[in-house]
Amino acid sequence: MSDTNHSAPPLAGIRVTDFTWIGAGSYTTKMLSDSGADVVKIESTERIDSLRLAAPYKDGIKGVNRSGYFADRNSGKRSLTLNMKHPRALGLVTRLIQQSDVIANNFTPGVMERFGLGYETVRAIKPDIIYLAMSMQGSSGPEKDYLGYGATMAAVTGMQYMTGLPGREPAGTGTNYPDHLPNPCHATFAVLAALRHRRRTGQGQYIDLAQTEPTIALLGPAVLDYTVNGVKGSPSGNASADQAAPYDAFPCAGEDRWITIGIHSETQWKALAGALGQPAWMDDSRFATAAGRRKHAEPLRELISSVTLQRDATELMQALQACGIAAAVVNTAADVIVDPQLVHRGHWLTLNHPEMGPSLYNAQPFRMKRAPSNVKQPAPLLGQHTREVCRELLGLDENEIEVLTQEGALS
């Protein structure tokens, strides 16, 4: 992590031995890779990362190298396939760890120990190693052995209970938040802090991240409302926590086209009336105050929808924004890809994947002027870099690689 070489990515020279798989763990090491780290992803042909088997597939053709989901979460990494049950595999990993700065996993506690790679063992191999363990519930406690995924975490943390429409069953948000926001971002922050600590002190670090805990951080207002006011909370749909009204998504002209509108003041309410053509019902006494609009939210929503249904979503958005009203078109995935702001920022990158061909990738959502970094390579094929890593990092010649492959250590 050089302070003087401003032309290199910020994590150039950092190597990660990556045992993570599926969502949050893979996204964590992706962010490190995108920032210049050499991430060697340990995989197995016997137990394939289930993200490789997740849709969507390029051209709808299934295959371990054709998942767009996997590709987006594993850009820039190198894939080394090992059979960790083989007696010689541990020796190979040991050589890799000796040349690494970080080792990461998101297994339940005990899995790495069964591989012979618990923290104390790894620390003996590389005393200043930064060891990231990001299980669902952490390494201690009565629920430490529970296995969980993004949807599980959303449930146990209360997020799923708070999400959905009033009076309906909990809808949840899929894996969107736990796997893609709080957990990988907190884990990456912890690794960066540990790298800085090591640079200053020479000391490694054991990072024990329980993925439920960063997820709970998303529920701050709900937790505070309960601890201060005793209010348990409930699903509120699109309603605004800061009492804005109306605050919702409304249908527009065309097939499944929508616009979101948020009114935060009486000035904006009057501006909305003008933008919608001053319909008579907007003078109804029920809607004269924000409290009244919240109380009569459903009839108000129907009345606004009767007008917005006749309007083009983009044109209406522009008209409302010109009046100082927070409004946005509800974009589809196709809309986002051609969004002019994202295009201007160079957010979408096309990288040539060995099997899928030219494929779209997300760029990093930030830019560093003095330390440029970004997605440089597509996601790897399964085992694509096994021989390369064996030669360059493990010091094996072609004959040794062939023997280990025939023996099943290299899978």
UniProtKB/TrEMBL annotation:
GO MF terms held by the record: CoA-transferase activity
SUPFAM superfamilies the UniProt entry points to: CoA-transferase family III (CaiB/BaiF) (SSF89796)
InterPro entries cross-referenced by the UniProt entry: CoA-transferase_III_domain (IPR050483), CoA-Trfase_fam_III (IPR003673), CoA-Trfase_III_dom3_sf (IPR044855), CoA-Trfase_III_dom_1_sf (IPR023606)
Signal peptide range: none
Keywords per UniProt: Transferase
Keyword Phosphoprotein (UniProt): no
UniProt keyword annotation of Transferase present: yes
Record-given protein name: CoA transferase
Gene source species: Verticiella sediminum
